[in-house]
Design goal:
The chain has 1043 residues and is of the alpha/beta class. Helix content is 38%, strand content 22%. The chain has a 7-stranded mixed beta sheet with strand order 16-12-13-14-15-11-17, sandwiched between helices. A hairpin with a 5-residue loop joins strand 34 and strand 35. Helix 2 runs antiparallel to helix 7, helix 13 crosses helix 22 and helix 18 crosses helix 19.
Length: 1043
Amino acid sequence: MVNYRKVGVIHTSASGKSFVWKVVDRNKPDKFYAMKFFAGVNDDFQKLVFKRELEALQMLRSCEGIVKIHDNNASIRIGDERNYGTILMDYIPGDTLDKIDWSRYSLLKKYEICLKILKAVKGAHANDVIHRDLKPSNIIYDEIKDEITIIDFGFSKIKTIIEKETTMPRYSENYSAPEVILGYDITEASDIYSLGAIFYEIFFLKPATSENKMVADIQESSNRESFKNILIGMLATNSDERVNNVVDVISVFSELIGELNVNRWEYNIFVGVNCLELLKRKYVIPKDMTMALFTNSYLKKQFSECYGYFDSFKKTYFITGLEIVAECTFNTETKVIDIIKINEIAVDRRNINIKRGFKIEGKIDFIDSRFKYSTRVGKDNAKLLVMFVNKQSEKDQYKVREEKFDKLFGEWEKGLNESVESEKEKVGKITYENYKLDNGYLIIDVSECINKSIDEIQPNTKYIIEGKDNRNQPIYLEVGTFEEAVCEDDAAKVIIKLPNKFLKANVKALLKKKIIISEDFRANIKAYRRQFSAINALKADDCSAKNLKDIILNIEEPESTPNIVGLHYSTKDLNDSQKLAVMKSLHSENISLIQGPPGTGKTKVIKEIIFQIIKKSKDRAEIPRILIVSQSHTAVDNILEGLPEMIDDSMQVVRIGQDKDISSAIASKYTIEAHRNNVFEKIEEKAKKYCEEQELIYSQIESKDEKDKWERIKAIQKDWIKRIGERDCLDYQVVRSASVIAGTCIGFLSNEHIKEMEFDYVIIDEAAKATTPELLVSIIRAKKIILVGDQNQLPAFSDERISPTIAKLTKNPQFRLFDVLFESLPETHKQVLTTQYRMISNIGNLISHVFYGDTIETGIDDNLRQHGLSRYKGKSIVWFNTSGNARRYQKKVKGGSFINEEEKRIIQIILQDLNTSGELEGKDIGIITGYSAQKDLIKKAIKARQFDDIANININTLDAFQGRENDIIIYSTVRTNNSIGFQKEKERVNVAFSRARKLLIICGDMDFFYTYDDPNNKFIEIIDYINEHEQCQVISCKGEKIF
């Protein structure tokens, strides 16, 4: 118990082997828990008791009035004894009911305490848990907080679990129902009998005894008839005659409380003749009604049930009755209440007033204001004022809470509305003159890119074309998925991968007509609506995680509970910050965050978290449900690649998404299609084997009837195999039985069977790359949330033409949920990974210094990151500076992109130099630029020189490079005048430069980038670093010759 220290003993069993300790969190000396020990859980009976309490408390985790479980372990050692089952629970202050002197409490208070007990039992029954051992010592009442808590579920019955051991007779004398004592069937009525015996003790101040004696005492008492009848009904010997639904008991106790509350407090309110006359003029009351009748009869009936609220604008108090509403003033010094206006109220307005107010409990006397000075103020008028003040305070807190919510999420809602309205008109469109088909690809000669430049087309963008149906209504046909853009000279091509390598005839006909193709907006609109729903769910507190809304709004701190025992990691390779990240994530009761700068091993940490969850679940024989999502399919697949070491049965993992977006190794193993085929093949194989065996048997039988019977069996089996192969039935079972479900942030909902699922954990990788509403889609579905990402790398992509608001929000950390939580969460719930293993220390130090405040250290030996290139010996960052080169300038091309011919030429020279020295062969090189046209220009040049046949050269735009890395990175800056473009966004530069393991080469106009005047320009710090460190070099490229 490395995380807890014993501070006292709460309870010890008669044998002394089972006990409950009061313990304290070693890191939080004011945080106490109860730790319950079950001796010898290797014994079948003790094991059953431990298991049953554990199962019941897990099922009742979200129920009010039930003790909350935090952790458990089945093999704790205490002294020389092993195999103690242990459950860590909330420590509940107060006394058990058997220790309370009930003569101290009023009748009303007893009713209220009993109602709290009833509501807690109702919650248990609603979750199919029957306590079966309710007695005073199993219920705690905290008088200070006025709360009850039910404990000790070791002998409970869970209706969804069938075990013969649960019928084992176990009872508490005088509290257990007759059927429990006799070992008969247990139902909810069994708990109701126990409650009846407990209530008998509370109200009659006698120990519970036989049911006949208790019933006799109840019948002879002078209690209210409704109370006597319900208590007798609870104590009926025969369970069929007993009250069998706790809701019925709640109803009676609620009425009893209401009756007592009417007489509990007394108020008086003064009303003038003007109010009487006003209602007469409006024909609300008869003209002949007198003031005495008005005050003593009419108003009393109208306000027999009433609700109050304070109008902070008018500074008046409103009391709403059955059909009228009174506007009042309240003298806070004299406590005199005066009605200044009284009116009829419509039903809908009354309902609004009820929702915004509180129910006024007590008796109201209405006094003619002409007798104000001869009448004493109502004895409880001051209490009524306190009720108004308390309600207003609640409203003020609610208002602050909602204002915070609207500040953070209101703008996102505005942006989503913009997106829905403009999606169709403002998505990227392409006009063209010619196209051709080439081996499953559609190659389009671009005439014009409308709404967005060719550089802004995102990977995996889907394209559609609009046609007309037979009613001349628009229909949208799929064209395919964006593969790449190619810019050649002054021409641009877009290459689209066709679905199933085939172009449908109706699509081909529309292409021949030169109909514009556009990005597929339909899925986006559906995604926006899911994001709307997620925001609304959070606003309504309709989330699986406890207090999630208030945690996000920084109104409440998240909770953290350490495990009973320390973690045993699956690998010794984890560094201290990685171990802390795993530990904090698992200890969090609701939400935690991990920032993973480049190369710090965040995927490794995610896999370790999954390992720990699954390991703990195996130890407890539980089946966890984990949702893994990310913005990119690649990131999801990278996580899943390591799961076979943790999960033996591949059926426990389901990958949601289309096969074309998923790596072939993952698709063949984890997709629903793969599971379906696997299951179906096994069934068919077994069925075939069974048929072959039976055919041999029936071939020896001569009876025609028997052979006909066998033919009918074969037909039934064939039909059964056909039906189990039906998608919906099988898919549902596959999804619902899985432990791990993985997909993209929005895409995982594409499976119908997942939409209503709740998860124990959601792990979101690349969380900083998702918009706030995108994160909420998965966040609201899990009890525990783990966000992994880096706010200093690429943010969420947003299209300013679709939504200017969202484009602005994605660039503002105050509205990005990952950034918001990084600032607000306590240290117990967030961890920065502080050791990088990707880059040689010089490159790592550059990234740490410029983007992370010198907080990231290098954990890999520089000897393992030597590039071995003679030209750059001892150097790991080299800038080829074109500042003095007359041919250095950028050029804008068709489609809106930029190229830089001189930088292309220099990159060719760099590669040729390596080739000449014999050092190019087999090298791992990435060439990055921010512009599609420059990418294509360089790609074409590399292809012409056949450098890509000699080395492994990957050429792409910056946005496509996050998550990748190469030994050598060559970065082309392109821009030379007016603006450095997107390169003033520090996140993009961070991603570009942190891809290099051994050598970072930058090619561009150093002076232009150093002097560009923008507060966000990180190149100033980068160039300063290069000029100050020996392992960096600047090579001037003024003329033709460079080396």
